[in-house]
Amino acid sequence: MRKLIALLMAAVLVLSMAACGASEASSLTESAKAEASEVVASAMAEAAEVVGDATGSDMAYVQTNGKLVVGITDFEPMDYKDDAGNWIGFDADMAAAFAASLGVSVEFVEIDWDNKIMELDGKTIDCVWNGMTLTPEVTASMECSNAYCNNAQVVIVPAAVADQYQDADSIKDLNFAVEAGSAGEQVIAELGYAYTSVKAQSDALMEVAAGTSDAAVIDSLMAAAMVGEGTGYADLTYTVGLNSEEYGVGFRKGSDLAAALNEFFAASYADGSMMKCAETYGVQAAIIPQ
């Protein structure tokens, strides 16, 4: 407790000094302002750590820190940037609404998907909210929310040859591009097919478009948004569905935020705001009743 008080007092002192300097000299430099902000942010983060450790509560940690840090990748229609550079998408919008319900802001951080568990445990992020499949590895390593969205892993091929690849047997000799650490990689590995791991699902699409891979395996929701007529990959299409799966949100193991999110999901489904958000991004048919 003494450490917490000291950290908060330090933050207040820095803010007071900055305000005093601004009133006495309007020429306070931008660098000085930035330095003061960094000191305050650091003090608040340390204070949040102390609170979280003392209470054993992830919610207390996030609320003391004043923000929910969400780990994502560029994954339309779940998390992607608009023309102004803001993160939008079904998951991004729901994450922002959940953060608001906790009384904090939201911060989105792009992560290497293969390192998501390490990022979470190291507290560089507070949750993984990015169309994440509830695989046995994920549920064993994270405190997960209830499933909120149905999905499948689908095969992407050039539209010109799609008629040749309409079942599982026809694709067995292809070379695939898959996102490292993804459900798609897991499915292809279990089938024993040849594949190359790439950083993101969007990179897997680029591999097929460039002809460096015969096919890709990505989430069906992403395929519906990014592949085919009217998209940036009009010459690609999806054919074979390899499985069925569900999305959930992952927190640190034992986190009380998972239960809080389940309550938020139930309330937002009941009042219609979840479905309204889903309709904005065309994923309403995949939503799981809460």
Notes on the protein architecture:
With 290 residues, the protein is α/β, with parallel strands linked by helices. The chain has 3 domains: 48 residues; 124 residues, Periplasmic binding protein-like II (D-Maltodextrin-Binding Protein, domain 2); 91 residues, Periplasmic binding protein-like II (D-Maltodextrin-Binding Protein, domain 2), CATH 3.40.190. Helices cover 45% and strands 21% of the residues. The chain contains 11 helices and 13 strands. Strands 1, 4, 5, 6, 7 and 13 form a 6-stranded mixed sheet that branches. Strands 10-9-11-8-12 form a 5-stranded mixed sheet, with helices on both faces. A hairpin with a 5-residue loop joins strand 2 and strand 3. Helix 1 packs antiparallel against helix 2 and helix 2 packs antiparallel against helix 3. The N terminus is likely disordered.
